[in-house]
Every structure is written in structure tokens, then in C-alpha cells.
């Protein structure tokens, strides 16, 4: 009985939170996630044949993108990434992939995931 009441309480609070967020009318820009400004935008996601990486705040910086499969195997290493880069997905299987955006000092600036559907 305790599990059911806890679940019911959670659902009610979650629903109230969603309705409050919808009523606030504040739209969050697409390059913000959890209050943090995103540096890279990728599309389409999910992807089938190619995925586009777009650097939003380049400031003439040069980046690298490393792509791993979900098991941690390195799939691609894109060097000297400009404002827009296209990644060909011919050698990719369906699944989830992780990317890391790395600056010229070797620091991970951002990481994220994308889905390949074939």
C-alpha cells in the first residue's frame, strides 16, 4: 500500500510541476540545457546517414570531436573542427553514440549523445 501511495504522490507532484512550467510561459532557448549554455548543436537526432555538428560559440577556436559507441569503443576522431562538420554514418550501426567536444588544450568542453537508426 505504501508503494502505491508513494507512486500516486509522485505522479501528482510531477503533473503539477509540468502544468506550472507550461503556465509560466518562459521558453528556454534550444542551446540551453539544464541552465547551461551548449557549445555544439547536432542534427538530425536520430540520424540515419549523416549527422551535422554545428559549433555555436566558436570564437575562432579549433575543436576536436571524438565519437564513442555505447561500449566505449572509439568510432571517429574529427580534428580541426570548424563551425560546421558533417559526420558520415555509413560505418555505424543502429544505437546510441557518445561524442566529446575537446578544445585545443585537451579539455572536454562538452559531451552528449546521439542516436543512429538504420
UniProtKB/TrEMBL annotation:
One family name in Pfam for this protein: Por_Secre_tail
InterPro entries the UniProt entry points to: Secre_tail
Residues in the signal sequence: 1-22
Keywords in alphabetical order: Signal
Keyword Signal on entry: yes
Domain Secretion system C-terminal sorting: 42-109
Origin superkingdom: Bacteria
Name of this chain's protein: Secretion system C-terminal sorting domain-containing protein
Organism, scientific name: Chitinophaga caeni
Amino acid at each position: 500500500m505504501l508503494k502505491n501511495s508513494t507512486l500516486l504522490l509522485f505522479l501528482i507532484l510531477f503533473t503539477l510541476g509540468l502544468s506550472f512550467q507550461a503556465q509560466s510561459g518562459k521558453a528556454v532557448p534550444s542551446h540551453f540545457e539544464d541552465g547551461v549554455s551548449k557549445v555544439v548543436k547536432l542534427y538530425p537526432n536520430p540520424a540515419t546517414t549523416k549527422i551535422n555538428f554545428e559549433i555555436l560559440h566558436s570564437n575562432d577556436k579549433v575543436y576536436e570531436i571524438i565519437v564513442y559507441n555505447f561500449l566505449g569503443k572509439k568510432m571517429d576522431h574529427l580534428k580541426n573542427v570548424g563551425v560546421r562538420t558533417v559526420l558520415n554514418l555509413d560505418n555505424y550501426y543502429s544505437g546510441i553514440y557518445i561524442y566529446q567536444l575537446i578544445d585545443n588544450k585537451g579539455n572536454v568542453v562538452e559531451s552528449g549523445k546521439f542516436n543512429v537508426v538504420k
